[in-house]
Amino acid sequence: MDCEYCQESVIMNQKQKHFKTCRTFPVLCTNKCGRTDIPREELEAHILDECPATEVQCEYKKLGCEEVFPRSAAKSHSQMQIESHLRLALRVLEATQYQVHELVTVVKEQSQQIEKQSQQIERQSQQIEKLISKNNEQSEKMERPMSTAQEHPLQREGRGFPTPFQWKIDTTEAKSKTLFSEPFYLFEGGYKYIMKISPPPLFERCLRVSIKVVPGEFDDSLSWPCKEKVRVTMLGQRHRSVPLNKTSGVIDFEKVEEPCSRPLHDGHHEYRLILQLSAFAIFVRKCSILLMVSGE
Ligand SMILES: [Zn+2]
Ligand SMILES: [Zn+2]
Ligand SMILES: [Zn+2]
Fold it and tell me: pLDDT (tens digit, 9 = 90+) per residue, 262-278?
């Protein structure tokens, strides 16, 4: 025959024994709330979630109310304790506001420190740049004894030969179009050069700096093909928190594949690659870079 509660088939004279373990046999609430009809398998859930006799904690426990009472008294506790619960909430709110205020102060202090440090880094980078250009000037002077200057008293009025030649480039501009330098000399009575910087080729992140010799005032007294060695050094002009980049490239006209004969017009020679600027930093922000060109 079948059990009337769980519908399982049970041997006739074992029915009482089955009731002791039957999953759906109605039992008394062990919490003594008075219910007698709870299917055995639901007793645990009843006590946990709905039994009015189960002891529960006040819902304001996290804010500090420590009271414990039967579930049936929860509503009256909340109603009676509105005032003390609000006081607790207020105190927690005040504490939280205080903490927020403290944190804001800490954040402010830290950002001031960061600001100070980045200013310091900026000052140091400027000093480094100054030292580098000073150093270049000095080595230039050492390489070019006075006699050279006397051999070529052709220095044009009001027009020096800035050594090294400096070319300032806006990287935002250089990333989208080819830029050309002014024509320049590296030495009095020397070869005349022009440089260009071209945007990265497809799928690359390098600005390409190239150089060529163009007809100059002193070509008659110069030896051809040109065998000069030219160095280009890139100085990143730092903007806030962009690290100083310095790279350089050299072209030795004596060793180029095609000798650099005397140019007959500006378009006579092809530009020759001297430096690829692949520094990541110049691509992530708008900044300017300085190219310094000098003879070796
Ligand atoms: Zn049963
Ligand atoms: Zn109960
Ligand atoms: Zn409470």
Answer: 999 988 899 999 988 76
CA distance 146 to 209: 32
Of all ligands present, the nearest one to the C-alpha of 31 is 2
The mean pLDDT of 67-71, rounded to a whole number, is 96
Q: Which ligand is closest to the CA of 6, given by its number?
A: 1
Name the closest ligand to CA 61. 3
pLDDT tens track for 224-274: 999 999 999 887 655 554 455 567 889 999 888 888 999 999 888 999 999
Flag whether the pTM goes above 0.70: no
Find the 36 Cα to ligand 1 centroid distance in Å.
16
Q: Hey, what are 233's tokens?
A: 């050094």
Calculate how far, in angstroms, residue 59's C-alpha sits from the geometric centre of ligand 3. 7
CA of 19 to the centre of ligand 2 (A): 20
Cα–Cα distance for residue pair 44/217, rounded to 1 Å: 104
For residue 46, the surrounding DSSP H or E stretch is none
| CA 23 to ligand 2 centroid distance, Å | 18
Identify which ligand lies nearest to the alpha carbon of 25: 1
Q: Within 10 A of 160 (CB to CB), how many other CB atoms are there?
A: 9
Ligand 3 center from residue 34 Cα (angstroms): 26
Q: Give the up-direction half-sphere exposure of residue 128: CA atoms within 13 A in the CB hemisphere.
A: 14
Domains, the chain, with CATH or none = 12-80 (3.30.40), 161-295 (2.60.210.10)
